[in-house]
Design brief:
This protein has 526 residues and is an alpha/beta fold. Helices cover 34% and strands 25% of the residues. The structure holds adenosine-5'-triphosphate (ATP). GO terms for molecular function: ATP binding.
Length: 526
């Protein structure tokens, strides 16, 4: 049985054919993965299926019936649901309120709604509690609420846009279990991902899109990640490996006892202390929401810590504003590229100036130099393989991965001494990921110090010279990137670690927490 069929879909934007004669058949009760390099046209196709965009040509068939969508509401009415990559829940409302919001007509807002939520939660193993506030939930739990929200609206085909980008390995396994439950009940899932190993483990069918058109399908059981990468981008799957160490004993950035508290007094950063030297990548591992955002904000100067000292080489910069920090050589790849990295409605070349208005080549003396900025944008577009019809299109018209490449290119172009890299390759395809890793490694050889925050544990382990785990605003453990596995690191991040980790001097209770593990021999001895 076919759940959804897209046939002959074509969609043009000025200067770009985003989709060209795409064919996709999703069988009922399956997980169907959609893979392809950045800008291949995956999101566009899904926006068409979800009624956010109209195709120029082609047909959409849902459960055997041809349909035409003018809005997401039309798509939802036909059982198509979408879980976006940027979650859209209201923090200060409960799970129940978030789920029923906008769909009060279905089951009201009271007991009936609560019963329905519980029923869905149990049936698909989502473990969603209706009465907790969303702000109290971690990333994985929020994602399950989003999934429940679309199920509540009657979705029978769910579109998930890079759902695993923000999850640790254990959470990915749990999500995949949920997807299996959905399948078992006859629902279908379309899943966009750049993580090819995961695609092969969870998908029943795979469709590959290249340069706007479907170039083939792959049978997961007969395909390796390498072969899939080759189908996608015509290049091999990269592995990030720390080449010979380039770490020196010259400190670039020194952070001493940094503390920050929430308005209510809850500690967000608790006694954070570290040094990164020339030629060193310090990786910070942690589940989102354990202080990473606050640490990055404090380092780039978006927020000031309550106490503690930050030094760049020999100079104390704790009170410096953001612009001065950037001018003095701090580069910044933000975790949320839409909020902090780009002006979406401005052309690419203006985005190239963003954050670096007073620096060369954007400025000459006190004046902006648009010509030079434009020329340099062209260079970045070529060097970082930003797929775009030109530098005058808006940042919003680039695909997600290409937006990311532009930001990385901009920041690296200023030859920073210290780079704050939050998820530098999020949403980027395997080929571009390898290229970005190479750029970072090359700069490291020349003395760049990097603070790397990433949810991609292979990236974290492969690029870091030193690895530390952040938990509840504290740096709680060190890990050796040469020996730790992603699974072990994932365990450490969720607050319980196994043998590989060396513990810092942390309060006794934290240590106990961290070393707790069901299988550890000490536990059995206790
Ligand atoms: N609103 C728009 N206006 C102009 N061009 C667009 C628009 N949306 C997408 N495009 C272009 O269409 C092409 C396909 O983009 P799309 O976002 O579908 O790619 P993708 O496969 O999802 O990429 P990624 O993996 O980077 O998310 C790109 O060249 C992009 O620049």
């Amino acid at each position: 049985m076919t759940a959804v069929e897209l046939a002959g879909i074509t969609k043009r934007f000025p200067g770009v054919v985003a989709n060209h004669d795409i064919h996709l058949t999703v069988r009922k009760g399956t997980v169907h993965a959609l893979v392809g390099e950045n800008g291949a046209g995956k999101s566009t196709l899904m926006k068409i299926l979800y009624g956010m965009q109209k195709p120029d040509e082609g047909t959409i068939t849902v459960h055997g019936e041809q349909v035409s969508f003018s809005s997401p509401a039309d798509a939802i009415a036909r059982g198509i649901g979408m879980v976006h990559q940027h979650f859209m829940l209201a923090d200060n409302l409960t799970v129940l309120e978030n789920v029923v919001l906008g769909s009060e007509k279905l089951h009201g807002i009271g007991g009936k709604a609560r019963r329905r939520i519980k029923e869905l939660s149990e049936r698909y193993g989502l473990e969603v509690r209706p009465d907790v506030l969303v702000e109290e939930l971690g990333v994985a739990a929020r994602q399950r609420v989003e999934i429940l929200k679309v199920l509540y609206r009657g979705a029978t085909t769910l579109i998930l846009d890079e759902p695993t980008a923000v999850l640790v390995p254990q959470e990915v396994d749990a999500l995949f279990d949920n997807l299996r439950e959905l399948k078992a009940e006859g629902l279908s899932v379309i899943f966009i991902s750049h993580k090819l190993g995961e695609v092969l483990s969870v998908a029943d069918d795979i469709t590959v899109i290249r340069r706007g058109t479907t170039v083939g399908t792959a049978v997961p059981s007969e395909t390796t990640p390498r072969q899939l990468a080759e189908l996608m981008v015509g290049s091999e799957l990269p592995t990030p490996e720390t080449a010979e160490s380039t770490v020196t004993d010259r400190p670039v950035i020194t952070v001493d006892k940094l503390r920050m508290a929430a308005p209510g007094g809850k500690p967000l950063l608790d006694d954070i202390t570290f040094t990164i030297h020339e030629g060193e990548v310090l990786g910070i591992a942690g589940v989102e929401g354990n202080g990473q955002t606050e640490l990055v904000d404090a380092l780039i100067g978006l927020r000031h810590a309550d106490s503690g000292v930050i030094r760049l080489a020999d100079e104390e910069i704790t009170a410096w504003p953001t612009r001065k920090r950037r001018e003095q050589g701090i580069g910044y790849i933000p975790e949320d590229r839409h909020r902090h990295g780009l002006l979406l409605e401005a052309p690419l070349w203006e985005n190239r100036i963003l954050g670096h208005v007073t620096e060369k080549p954007n400025a000459k003396g006190v004046w902006l130099d648009p010509k030079a900025a434009q020329e340099d944008t062209r260079r970045i577009v070529t060097e970082y393989d930003v797929r775009t019809p030109g530098i005058d299109v808006t940042a919003a018209s680039l695909s997600g991965g290409n937006q990311q490449k532009l930001i990385v290119g901009r920041e690296m172009s200023h030859k920073p001494r210290f780079l704050i890299a939050a998820h530098p390759t999020r949403g980027v395809d395997v080929g571009a990921q390898a290229a970005i890793w190479d750029h970072i490694r090359e700069a490291r050889r020349e003395g760049l110090a990097v603070l790397l925050i990433s949810a991609d544990l292979d990236e974290l382990i492969g690029l870091s010279d030193t690895l530390r785990v952040i938990y509840d605003g504290k740096l709680v453990a060190d890990a050796d990137p040469a020996t730790i596995t992603p699974e072990e690191l994932g365990t450490a991040m969720t607050g319980s670690a196994e043998g590989h980790l060396e513990h810092e001097e942390t309060p006794a209770e934290t240590q106990a927490d961290l070393s707790k593990s069901a299988e550890s021999p000490e536990d059995e001895a206790r």
